Structures are given as structure tokens and as C-alpha cells.
Amino acid sequence: MTAYLIRRAIGALWVVVGVAVTVFVILHLTGDPAAVMMPLESTPQEIAQFRHNRGFDRPLWLQFGTFAWSALHGDFGDSLRHGEPALGLALERVPASVELALAAISLAVLVAIPAGILAAVRRNSLLDILARVFSLIGQSMPVYWLGIMLILLFGVQLGWFPVSGIGGLKHLVLPAITLGLFSMAKVMRLTRASMLDILQSDFLRTARAKGVLPLRLILHHALRNAWLPIVTVIGVEIGSLISQAIITETIFGWPGIARLAVQAIYDRDYPIVEVVVILAAVSFVAINLLVDVLYAALDPRIRYE
Amino acid sequence: MASASIAAKGVIDLDEHVRRRPFVFVLFSGGATIVGGLIVLAVTLCALLAPWIAPHDPNAQNLAINFKPPSWVVGGDQAYPLGTDNLGRDILSRIIWGSRVAGLVGLSAVAIGGIIGVSLGIIAGYFGGLADDIIARVADVQLAFPAVLLAIAVVGVIGPSLLTVIATIGITGWVQYVRVVRAEALSLREREFVVAAVATGASQARILARHILPSIASSITVLATFEVARAIILESALSFLALGVPPGVPSWGTMLADGRQYLDTAWWLGLFPGLAISFTVLGVNLFGDGLRDALDPRSR
Asked: What share of chain B is helix, strand, coil (3-state, %, to 5)?
């Protein structure tokens, strides 16, 4: 297990390095960042001065070397707009994003897993049909449209929830539903399919014949064996929340890291974009690693060599 | 006696094989697939026939008639069934024309992602070795890069245009194909008919074109269907963030972004484009589900 973890950690490191290189190259695709970063009315001398100060006139590989070396020391440069260290600005926004993501994924899992199990156990019942329709529609709606419609209905028309900003639990409701609904639909569909598979298996028929109580049958015998694909898809969903959060945070004015990134792209604030993308990649590989370790805990047959 | 019954059984098996139902019947045997197919057909017809079926010019502005509600609401006008927007443009006409952008982006992005992904997947799976390692590493990097953020960054740097949007969405989509194609090519490489082809001295190109590609075609088709849905959602998301198609082109995402400012007074500006996206994606997903069931030999 330890050897496996070390190998995976090295692989994860490569991924983060690859992401850093990619974002660096994309942001330097324009050839001259100075020209786009400086205000339109700048004179050629000012632009040349800026270019020299920032080191943009040096070869690209040298620039990347400096960037990588500083980044390893936690220095991603100062934000061009705010004049403060980019890493600090990004980290400040992390708690708000984590709060929203945790709320969204908890909501998704707490609704989807029980609903998926019930739908599978009571196959073709009204509940099953509702669950299937919901997971189809939930996976077809664009996140931002759902957000807008929730704002329209519960914010503007009914006035139940605030539609923008961060605050107490009330502020969290609409963004969390918006961000979580797609994952909810996906996890529900997979839980149902996975449970249906297991419920038809021979060992479950045996357990039923032995007279195992229905609740114990479902939770102890069936769910334990259905966990693996469900945990996998939850892991994938947490990873994709980072992408979905970009739009959710923008719509609801949520002061998270994704909104910071979008604003930074509009402002051409490259240091911030770089640091956010790298943080996103780090959390993505960390979640994936965690899911793989969870596999071994959930299924004793899995042993990593 | 025993051999006779075996022979008889063999004949029956053969008969069943011959009488297998045609693919189209299998595909449309479920109600959901029919609904999905009809939705896809309707959107396709809208895109192809937009100039003839749209009641108005989608870009014709007329401030005298702006913010007209849908025709069934008080103050609505029969000539504008779904109402007009802040500039007095007909919403129905814009939605009909918007299907062109959705269809164009959906199909071309999937073609780009598919060509890159299938080629790399075959190289990784069939040839293996160093190329496989490199492709796997690059795929890991792509997966760890939030797709929307990557798209925003690329469009933000290069500048928004229809071409940039298509290329960006296409490039973010290749990983899914690589995963599927690589896995299938890996197992196909060891199958008897491929080994036999190698033994008879068939060229690599012939084996790939005649044996490998036809065998993975059905998985690619199903995957491509779902990728069309993903491309349509991503395009509208980019347009929504003002990083999509240029303002002159009617697109569902742009309509939603414009309508968002008038949410409290004119709900129809935000409702209908979103319904158009959701229905289209729903139709594509339903059709993809049906296609997967029909192409999966176990379900036939």
C-alpha cells in the first residue's frame, strides 16, 4: 500500500507539473503578455519598460524556469490588478468555495443515494419513475439556467432566499441546489443501476431465502456491494464541481475562488489565473487519490501492490 | 438420435440468427428513444430550415415593440408567439436560428475531439509502448484541468469567435474517446481475428481500417452522441460568460445572458432559450441511451 501511494503521489506530481506548463503556455500564446496587460493608452516606451521589468523579453523557457522556481517557494507573483501576492488572494477565497462545494455535494449525496436505493428496490413504482425522470432532466439542464430559474422563482417572485452574496444558511440554499443538482441526478441514476444489478445477484437471493430482514438485506448485503461505482462517480463529480462552480459562483456573486479566476481572465491578471488553475489541479488529483484509497477500505478484495 | 437432435438444434439457432430484427426496429423499440429521436429531428429541421420557418428576421430590432410578453399572456401579440426581447427582436425566431449555432458547434466540436481522441486512443491501445505512456500522462493532465476554465482561458487569450469556441470545445473533449478507444483497442489486439490478420501478412493500415475501427465504431458513436450534448451545454455556457459566439449571431447562451438582466420584469427572455437548450440536450441524451442499448449485443 505504501509503495502504491508513493507511486501515485509521484504520478500526481507530474500531473500538477503538466497543468502548470499548460496554463503557462496558454497564457503566453499571445506572444506578448505586456501588450494585453497594459492599459490601451500606454506609450510604446511604457510597454517596453513593463515588459522588461516583468521579464517578458527573456526566452520562454527561462521565464518558465523562473516561474516554476518561485512557484515551488510559494511565490506565484503579484496580482496585476490588486498588487498583492496571487497565492494569498486565491487562498483567501478557498473557504467560501469549499463551503459551497461541500454543501452541494452533501445535498446531492444525501438525496441521491436514498432515492436511488428506493427506486431500485421498488422498481417501476411511482417513486422509481419520478427518480428516473428527475435524473434525466437534471442531467440535461445547463447549470447556469437552473440558477437563473431558481433566482427568478425563489428570489424574485417568492422572495424566500437572497439571490446574491455570502452569509448564513439562507444564502447557501440556492447556489448549493444549483451546483449540486447535476451531480444529484448522476449519482441517483448510478445508485439505482448499481443496486438493480446487485439485487438480482445469486447471493442476494440466498440471503433473502435465509430470511435476512429486508432493511439489513439492502443496507448490509446489497449496498456494501454497490458502493464501488457509486463512490467512483461521487469522486468524479467532486472533481467536475470545480468546473461547474465557475458558473454558479458567477451567477450568485459568491466570493469563491472560481469567480476570482473568471474575473482574473477578464482582467488578464495572469498570476491569479495560474495559481487558481494549479490549486484546482492539486485538489483534483488529491480527490482522485483519496477515492482510490477509499476503494481498498470499502472492498477488502482490492489490494494495491 | 443424439446427433440428429443436435443438428436440429443447430438449424433452429441459425434460424433465430437470420430472423434477428433489423437495427432500426431495435433502436426505436423504446418510447424514450422515439421521443429523443423526434426532438433531435425537430432541432435538425429548425437548423436546416431556419430562413424559411422563422417568422421574423432574428436580428431585426424594433424598440417600439420591445418586451412584448408571450402571446398567451396579457399584452402579448400573436405575431410574436414567445414575445420579444429588450431590443424588440422576436424570441421564437432567435431560438430557431440559435439551433444552427448549437448544431454547428455540437457536431464540429465532436468531430474535432473524436478525430484527435480516436487516433490517440488507437495509437495508445494498439501500438502501446512509450506512446501509450505519453498519451496517458497528457490525458491525466487534461482531466485535472477544469474544462470550463481551460475553455475560458483559451477563448480569453485568443479572443471569442465561432471558430475559437468550436476548436476549444473540441480540444477539451478528446480525453473521453482516448479512454474508451484505448481500452477496446487493447483487448482487440489480442483477439483471434486480429491475430489471424497479422499472421496472413495484412498491413498495419489494413488491420486498423478493416478490423479495429469497425469493431470500435459502435462505442464511438454512442460516446459521440453524449459528447454532442456536452458541447451544446459548454457552448451556451461560454456564450453566457460573453466568451462565446460574437453578439451578431443568435445563440441560446447569448440570449440567456442578455435576458438575465431583465429577469424581474421579463421572465420570458430567460425561460425560453434555457428550455431550448434543455430539450435539445434531453433529446440527444435519450437518443444516446437508446443507441447504446441497441448497439450493445447483450440487450438485443
From this structure: 75, 0, 25
Q: Are B91 and B84 in contact (CB under 8 A)?
A: yes
Give this prediction's pTM. Answer: 0.83
Only one residue has cell 463551503, namely: A99
CA neighbor of A228 nearest in space, from A179, A301, A283, A120: A301
C-alpha cell, B8: 436440429
Task: Mark yes or no for CB contact B263/A156 under 8 Å.
Answer: yes
Contact A154, B265 (CB under 8 A): no
Between positions 203 and 242 of A, the ones with CB within 8 A of B are 239, 242
Provide the residue-wise pLDDT of chain A in tens; the chain has 305 residues: 788 888 888 888 888 888 888 888 887 765 566 666 677 677 888 878 877 877 777 777 888 888 888 888 878 888 877 878 888 888 999 999 999 999 999 999 999 999 998 898 888 889 899 998 898 888 888 888 888 888 888 887 888 888 777 777 888 889 999 999 988 998 898 889 888 888 888 888 888 888 888 888 888 888 877 887 888 888 888 877 877 888 889 888 889 998 888 888 877 788 888 888 888 888 888 888 888 888 777 777 776 66
Whether residue A231 contacts residue A294, with contact meaning beta carbons closer than 8 Å, is answered with yes
Q: What value, to the nearest 5°, has the Cα angle with vertex B235 and ends B173 and B112?
A: 35
**Residues on B contacting A at a C-beta cutoff of 8 Å:** 137-138, 140-141, 143-150, 152-154, 156-158, 229, 233, 236-237, 240-241, 256, 260, 263-264, 267, 270-271, 273-274, 277-279, 281-282, 285-286
CA nearest to B273 within chain A: A145
How many CA atoms does the CB half-sphere of B27 hold within 13 Å? 11
* Domains within chain A, CATH numbers bracketed: 86-298 (1.10.3720.10)
DSSP B22: P
- The CATH homologous superfamily to which domain B2-299 belongs is MetI-like (1.10.3720.10)
- Chosen for mutation from B105, B149, B256 (greatest number of chain A CBs closer than 10 Å) is B149
In chain B, where the domains are located: 2-299
